[in-house]
Fold this protein.
Amino acid sequence: MTLSLALHLFEDFFWSAIDATGFALLFNVPRKALLTCALLGGIGHLTRTITHEFIPLDLAFATLIGSTIIGFGGHLFAKPLKTPHTVLSVPGVIPMIPGTFAYRAMIGFLRFSQSTSATGSSPILVDATSFAVRTILILSAIAVGIVIPNLLIFRKRPVI
Amino acid sequence: MSQSRNKKALTHEALTDIIDLALWAGQLLLQNGASSHRVEETVHQIGTGLGCDWMDVLVSHNAIVVTTISAGDFRTKIRRIPKHGVDLTVVTAINRLRYRISDGTIDAGKLRDELQRISTRKPMYPFWLTALMVGLACGAFCRLFGGGYEAFALTTVASTTGMLVRGLLLREEFNPYLMVIVAAFVTSLIAALGKYLGIIDYPVALAAGVLMLIPGVPLINMVLDFVRGYVNVGISRGIFGLLITLSIAIGLLLAVSITGVPGL
């Protein structure tokens, strides 16, 4: 039981780290920052999985916690690596993108458009809309989480 | 503005030089995925660091307007930003230049050399490596979504091919929306072939494969811009991100309409 749980959490960390690294390459992140991106991606997604599966929090709320941790991590490593904090946190949050929800919403809307009977199509529409709303909520949680450290702690006075 | 009294009045030529350098740095930032606040702050710091009294910067989605002021004399210039991409190495390099300017360890001539070096630098990673790693990243998405190892391999192959197609179309300067539609179509078509290869969870590969095309940087910059008060730039970025996302959906739906629509 505990072994399979540990394996589950390790896989979660591992694949999110791979994910963040791939997107860091796509965004042409400096070589020195790659490992940090992978680490932040793994830790952030692991945090989301733990808070979602064990507390259990709603997935959008768990995403907010995960991406806030990534946001703080970006600020933490920005000074020693001499990079802007977003360079580290943007690839880090990529693993939390709700791909399956977006896919289900899309396929649902397609089926709705192809459906011929009104009674048969309404549950399809309700399902698709629900997935679309969850997708938007999770995406917003990702973006807001990155910004939260700026709002709470790093409120540097604007130079302009 | 109190410190400005210690500054020497600049000649009109010096002002021209400074506005060129500041605009160049701002253009590189905005082209490569920096938030509006970072663009404005950097342009301002470069100008005042090189001797201007004040810089006023207007950032838009596809142009920057800058006015430099020195002892009553002023110059204004507009720079168009025709193309947007993501290159965070450029953003990092210019961020470092900004601190060197406020330290006073770099002058206008050296700054010009550095900007020239940054804008002509080759990509940090070879194209095939990026394509392969992004393919693996989509495979990782597939595993995170609960797909098996067969679906993982399928996603990796599909997304790597999609990345190669995207790179080819990018080089030939196709319209970005068309590029995304074609790349999403190719990726989804390969992932949908899993149906005929007997991979049961191929719908997971369909959902995971196209995620490499998600406009993550514009969407996150949108929120950063909203929070910092650049609402107009944020709206432009959001609409751009939405259109790219719709293009992904079009490519995917075209592919599954050929092979039959699988539920997840």
Notes: The mean pLDDT of chain B is 91. Chain B touches chain A through 60 residues (CB under 8 Å). Residues 169 and 179 of chain B are 6 Å apart (CA to CA).
